[in-house]
Structure to design on (231 residues):
């Protein structure tokens, strides 16, 4: 059996000096069949809010970055039945699960999900009317966050929206618990980046239009919607 050692301690200040993509891929591959429970209990309220304010409607070309087990992806396909919805996730098991359930629930829809690294997306410039990304940036180092944001900017059409969900840093006891979890299994938890990423998105050339905190039980999220300026 393959060795599964996901622990690689983070420095005490919580910095992620480099992205540990191989470990992240393995850990998310391993948990893919149970991950829907986590989405249901901790992410579904923020997913609702992000979708509601995303401006996504039927007939668009929509991209979801880091689909996880596909709960948001199915919502996107549902609101975009005659458009095209693409998804990607680093973990092949997550991507396969997302594709399988979307096809089963919406057999007639153009919905495609593959195992792709968000840091280098295989889409031409200006391909999408909208992109959605929930709880990914916690897992990338700063350089890779910036690189991924450049990719997001590149694949969006002028006037397109970018909806982003981050783990909130506005609940002190949660922050402490997250720092412990992140230092034990960084490939799964990463570290919180909610206070720094919005500025990086702005630096990548997108303008913020909506910014809201939401809490599901003890789990805080921040939902932001950005827009790529029209030419
Ligand atoms: C915390 S989960 C979030 C899943 C889902 N977006 C949600 O809202 O529940 C993070 C996901 O990001 C994926 N991921 C991590 N690094 C990635 C990368 N470089 N490119 C694409 N996906 C990545 C993981 O495989 C995992 O499925």
């Amino acid at each position: 059996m393959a060795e599964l050692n996901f622990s690689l301690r983070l420095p005490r200040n919580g910095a992620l000096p480099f992205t540990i993509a191989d470990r992240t891929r393995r850990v998310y591959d391993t948990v893919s069949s149970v991950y829907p429970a986590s989405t249901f209990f901790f992410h579904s309220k923020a997913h609702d809010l992000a979708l509601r304010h995303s401006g996504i409607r039927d007939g668009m070309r929509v991209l979801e970055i880091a689909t996880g087990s596909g709960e948001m992806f199915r919502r996107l396909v549902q609101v975009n039945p005659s458009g095209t919805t693409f998804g990607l996730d680093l973990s092949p098991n997550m991507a396969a699960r997302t594709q399988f359930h979307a096809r089963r629930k919406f057999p007639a829809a153009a919905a495609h999900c593959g195992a792709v690294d968000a840091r280098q997306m295989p889409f031409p410039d200006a391909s999408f009317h909208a992109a959605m990304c929930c709880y990914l940036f916690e897992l990338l180092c700063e350089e890779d966050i910036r690189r991924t944001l450049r990719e997001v900017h590149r694949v969006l059409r002028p006037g397109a929206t970018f909806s982003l969900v981050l783990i909130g840093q506005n609940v002190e006891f949660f922050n402490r618990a997250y720092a412990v979890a992140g230092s034990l299994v960084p490939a799964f938890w990463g570290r919180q980046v909610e206070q720094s990423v919005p500025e990086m998105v702005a630096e990548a050339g997108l303008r913020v239009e909506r910014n809201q905190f939401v809490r599901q039980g003890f789990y805080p999220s921040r939902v932001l919607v950005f827009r790529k300026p029209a030419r």
Remarks:
- The mean pLDDT is 93.
- The two ends are 54 Å apart (CA to CA).
- The first helix runs from residue 21 to 31.
- DSSP finds eight helices and seven strands in the chain.
